[in-house]
Amino acid sequence: MHRKILFLLLLYYNAHGIVPSRWNRAMFFPSAQRVKRSSAALLNPVLQKSQDDVDLLFEFLLGELEISDDLKITVKDEELASTRKAMMFDILCNDVIPKNITEIRRLSSRLSGYPGMLKKEDFERTVLTMVYTAYRTAQSQGHQKDTWAESFVNLYKLLMHDLKLSSSQAPTSQRT
């Protein structure tokens, strides 16, 4: 059920987005500008460039992810994991999205103060961060579980707010 909701969020966002007119330089994921891989093509990586890319992202998530003890995220399905898009997914999950609760809370705070709509890549990275917080919530207990769950809910609310902005402005423009 949750995967279906995530898929619908990604699909809706991809179809009805708008580029913000101001704050275009807002850096919610600064690590995307300094990815630790050798290729210049991997600078500021983005998965979603078409509907097929959205479908593939959903397939990665459906195909199950493995998160090691050192928090490295990998796609379990070997065939999927061997694709170029899976390499980009790996970079986003392991080098770009925040993984500790302090960084995730900082991201939520910056996003909540953002006056416009998120760029496609920021929306995508926030969704991946939300998926990661859902995993950490499920793996935690006690106070830590509550902390991760609160972060998950905050990211969810921020994404829903962004989608509402997107749907209210969709007839006038398209996100690029």
UniProtKB/TrEMBL annotation:
Pfam annotation, one family: FAM180
Highest taxon of the lineage: Eukaryota
Record has Transcription as a keyword: no
Keyword vocabulary terms for this entry: Signal
Signal peptide: 1-17
PANTHER family registered for this protein in UniProt: PROTEIN FAM180A, PROTEIN FAM180A-RELATED
Protein name: Protein FAM180A
Source organism (scientific name): Python bivittatus (Burmese python)
